[in-house]
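Q: Structure tokens for this one, please.
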Amino acid sequence: RAAGPSGTGPAGSGRGSARGGSLPSGRASARSSARSAPSRRSVSGRLSSAGSGRGSVSVSVRSAGTSTGSSGRSRLGIGLVEVPGVPRPDPRAMVLDDPEVPERKRFCSRSDCGAPVGRSHGEHRGRTEGFCTKCGHPYSFVPKLRSGDVVHGQYEVVGCLAHGGLGWIYLAVDRAVSDRWVVLKGLLDTGDQDAMAAAISERRFLAEIEHANIVRIYNFVEHLDQRTGSLDGYIVMEYVGGKSLKEIANDRRTASGARDPLPVEQACAYGIEALEALGHLHSRNLLYCDFKVDNAIQAEDQLKLIDMGAVRRMDDEESAIYGTVGYQAPEVAEAGPSVASDLYTVARTLAVLTFDFQGYTTVYADCLPDPDTVEVLGRYESFYRLLVRATDPDPARRFASAQEMAEQLTGVLREVVALRTGRPRPALSTLFGPEVKVTDTELFAAPTREVSRLGARATAAPARAGRRRLVGRAP
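A: Here is the predicted structure, written as tokens:
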């Protein structure tokens, strides 16, 4: 969704690991009234409409300065579990030969609409360009940029990588900076130039974010569409080669071809790294809003959040809220996103990765299945308890911060690894220091002369005849 696709399928089929904005697949669907003995409510991930209309107060985001991006960990899995690495592919091999959006993935891009568009009727194929029959908003699934186009006099387009909620995502070469690979993603799906300029100005804070687990934003540029004459805005970001968590999960198959969920310890390793990234955003008064399996890529032994399209300031009460069915917290539609709702999405992602979570967008859209019906949840009670707390229907009862949830998830990881291997994996206490050590094996040395029961030692010469001078010695 934001930078660095992989895979081999056509657009919209899992090919694009680098995506931007929220894909139409996460748009609204009516919540099912059916509830199958849920043990706790969890997520209602629905694409919410624009804000409440209340005024917003701008936040001054500090400059990143020196990067605080390193989490201090040497590799994915924090030394407790070996996570299979994902090699970085040749970026050119990721370009789509025939970029086309399947009809089932064509939706109106207006956040308060989301109606299906461009669909076939009888013998007539669906149009790739036109107007939404529900709200009249224009749509286009035709790439605006072609191979060889130069954007902003600097970025030479190589081709399309994937299609996201705001249009096509492109691979390009930065001719001004050592021919590095970059990704171009449409910033705003509108023909209003003033609105586009305002959006560029509003999103510039993304370029200040520096963290090892977050895709790097390089630039915001404008480009004149020669075909339509519109001035389009693009966000320029780091290219991250690898596979999304969704692709990693889908690649695991049993002998019968059924999906084989990830081991709990591997999913925990991903969750810990994601929480590191979210914690960094939260420390800068920012919310990610749309964490899910599509929006994180593993490249070699590192995990990166790749889609910054839904990031917003914590006090922003006006901008549209983006989320995804099955991941978004139930209170977001009315109360708006928060730190608690961000942590909610991580727990839902862990659930999707670790067991066959059928109905997580419908029957279990805002709850977890009973642990008696899911082997993994019954086997690892601490893992289940973590999911329950992180998806509590009351945000105040969830984890207080990303750091707190990461610490608890690390404890779960240690327990799961210990159960798998039969070997304890304890950690140093954060409350108590190491044991006090002494250099001698005995507290007091053995006496070399006669000593009384009170600890007094006789001197070499008596003070008087028949009496001895006693020298007091501490017991």
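A few notes: The CA atoms of residues 1 and 19 lie 2 Å apart. The domain at 24-99+143-421 is CATH 1.10.510.10 (Transferase(Phosphotransferase); domain 1).
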